[in-house]
Amino acid sequence: MSVAAVSAPPAAGNIDLKCINTIRTLSMDAVQAANSGHPGTPMAMAPVAYCLWQKFLRFDPQDPVWPNRDRFVLSIGHASMLLYSLLHLTEVKSVSKDYDALGEPSVSLESIKAFRQLNSRCPGHPEYRWTSGVETTTGPLGQGVATSVGMAIAGRWLAARYNQPGFEDLFDFNVYALCGDGDMMEGISAEAASLAGHLKLPNLCWIYDNNHITIEGNTALAFTEDVATRFIGYGWNVTRVGDANDQDMLARAFGTFQNTKDRPTLIIVDSHIGYGAPHKQDTSGAHGEPLGEEEIRLAKRNYGWPEDRKFYIPEGVYEHFRQGIGKRGKELRDAWFSRISEYRKQYPELAKELFRMQHRQLPEGWDRDLPVFPADPKGLATRESSAKVLNAVAKNVPWLIGGSADLAPSTKTRLVFEGAGDFSAENNSGRNFHFGIREHAMGAILNGMSLVKVRPFGSGFFIFVDYMRGALRLSALMELPVIYVFSHDSIGVGEDGPTHQPIEQLANLRSMPGLIVIRPADANEVTEAWKVILQLNHGPAVLVLTRQAVPTIDRTKYAAASGLARGAYILADAPAGNPEVLLIGTGSEVVLCLEAYEQLIKDGIRARVVSIPSWELFDDQYKEYRDSVLPPQVKARVSVEESADFGWCKYTGTDGQNVCIETFGASAPMKQLLKKFGFSPEHIVAAAKNQIARHGGRK
Ligand SMILES: Cc1ncc(C[n+]2csc(CCOP(=O)(O)OP(=O)(O)O)c2C)c(N)n1
Ligand SMILES: [Mg+2]
What we know:
By secondary structure, this protein is an alpha/beta fold. α16 links the parallel β13 and β14 (483-487). α1 (15-34) packs antiparallel against α10 and α5 packs across α15 (439-451). The structure holds thiamine diphosphate and magnesium ion.
C-alpha cells in the first residue's frame, strides 16, 4: 500500500488514542531495540486490545491471579509486545509461584527495553509462569485459541458446581482470545471451535485479526475460505468490525458478545498490519522484522508522536489505565473476595474444595479407597485396573474431571460412580467429557482446564499421542499437571496392525523435558502410578496402558509395587543379591522377564529383574539408589520393551542387548506377533546367556 493510502489518524489529543499509540510505539521500539520480533500486529491490534482491556476486561492488575478474572489469551503469540505493553501500562503486579503478590511490576519498562534478551520478563513469545498476567504460553499457532476453549469449559464447570443460591455469580468469568490468520488455518482451532460451538459456550469470545497477511504474503496465496460462514456452521455468533480503529464499533461488538448467552462469539476485525508505517503497512514486511529507524520515525509522525523519542509514555497514560481497567478490576476483585468470605460461612465444604483446588492440593483422604489387587496369573489389562483406580480416586477428588477423544469405552477412563454425569451444553456439572475425535484440541483444552486449576485428564489410543504432541509439549513447557491416559500401548494391540501399534512413541515422549511417562507392569503398579501422578503439581504425566490382560504379579513372592514411586526397582533378585545379569523391562514385558528369570535361576544363573515403569522418576533418584538397582559393575544387561530401542543404551550400555522392535508392527493375532518379534521368555533367556558370554563369561 502506498504512503498516500495510509489513513490519517483521528485528531491526536484524545486520551484513548494516546494510550493506543503508546502501545504501538512501545511495541515498535522494543522490536527495533531487540533487532527482532513482530511489530506489525501490535500496531494494528492496539486499539482492539485497548478497547477490551480498558472498557470490558474484568481483571485486576494488582491481583492477576484472582480466580474469577476474565482471561485474555494472545493466541497470536508472535505479537507478544502487544501483551507486554498492556501488562506494563496497566501496571500489572508480579506474583510468585505460590501466588504471593510481590508488589513489583510484572513487566517493567526495563524489561520492555530488554525484549527478547536472556532473563527479560518479555521473552520472544508469552510464557506462562514467567510473566505474571500471561495466562498461557502461546507461539505455536492454534494452541492459544484451543486452550481458551478449555478455560471457558472449566469456567462453566466451576460455575455449575460452586455457584450456589445467593452466590449465582461466584464464577462467571469470560475468556477472550485474540487470534490471526495462522490460528484460523491450523486444524486445532477447527477442532476446538467445533467443540465450543457444540457445547454452546457463552463465555468464550475469539477476536480474529482479519488482516489478510501472513509471512509469505497475502492470504490469497493459501487461504480463501469464508471464515464467518464456517463459524456460523459451528454454531457460533459471528460479528464483524470493519475497522480496527473504530472504538465504538469494537465496543458494540464486545457488548454483543456479553449479551449473547447461548453460544460463543467470533468477532472478525479488519485491520491493517503495521498500521501507520508508510512503506510497510499491509505488507508481510511488517509481520516479523523491525520496521527500521526511518520507518519508525515516519510512523510516529503519522501518529502525531515525537519522532525521536523512544519508549515514550506520555503523561496521563498510566493514570488513564488506572481509572479504567485498574479501578474496575480492583472493585470487582475486592467484591469477589468479600463474597467468598461470606460463601465460606454458608458453604464451608465447597469453599474448602475451592481453596485446595486453587492451590493444587488434594483433599484429605483422596487415597483412602485405592485398590490393592491380589496375585492373579490371568490378571487384567492395565487399562482395566486403571479404570478401577481412577474411579476410586475421582470419587474423593471432586475436581478430577476429564474424558476421552471418543475412546472411553476402550481406554476405560469413564467415571461410572453415581453422580459423575456427562458434561454437555445442558449439564455443565458433569465430570465425564466427550472431546470428540479431536486429539489435538483435547490436549490444548486440557491445558486450558488445568490453567483454571481443575485437575483434568484426557485419554486415547497411545498411537494417537502423535496427533496431540503440540499440545502435550505445551503442558510440559507450562509445567501443568495434566494427566494423559493412553491405552493400546504396543503390538499387543494385535490385529489392528501397524497403524495402531506404537513403536517410537515411548522414546519420543521420554525425550520431552518435564514430562513423566509411566508404563506400569501390572495392576498394583497401576495403583502406585496413579498415586504418584495425583501428587504431581508441576508437570504433566502420561500413563501408558495395555489393551490385553497382564498377570497380577504375586507380591508376596516378588517385591512390592510401591517401588514404582522411585521409577525403577528390583522386582526379583539373584538369591544372594549379587546378580550377574540384569533383565530390565517395562509394562507388559515385565512378566516375560520374570518367566525368563525363573528359568535362569533354575539354570543356576544369578539373574535380577528390574521393573522400570518410569525413566524420568528413576533418573531423578540419587546415584546410590540408581547404582543399587543397576549395579555399574554388572555389564550383562538385557532390556525388554515392545518399542523402538532408542535411548535404552542409557541403561543397558553400548554392549547390552535390547529386545525391542526395529520396524513397524504387523497385523496379526497378538500371539503370532509376540513370536515374530521375539518377545518370549526363551528369547530373553538366550539373550541373557549371550550377554554373560559377551561380557567375559561367568564370574
Ligand atoms: C504452528 C505454527 N506454525 C508456524 C509458525 C510460524 N509463524 C509465526 S507467525 C506466522 C504467520 C502468522 O500469520 P497471522 O496469524 O496472520 O499473523 P500476522 O502476520 O497477521 O500477525 C507463522 C507461519 C508458528 N508460530 N506456529
Ligand atoms: Mg494475518
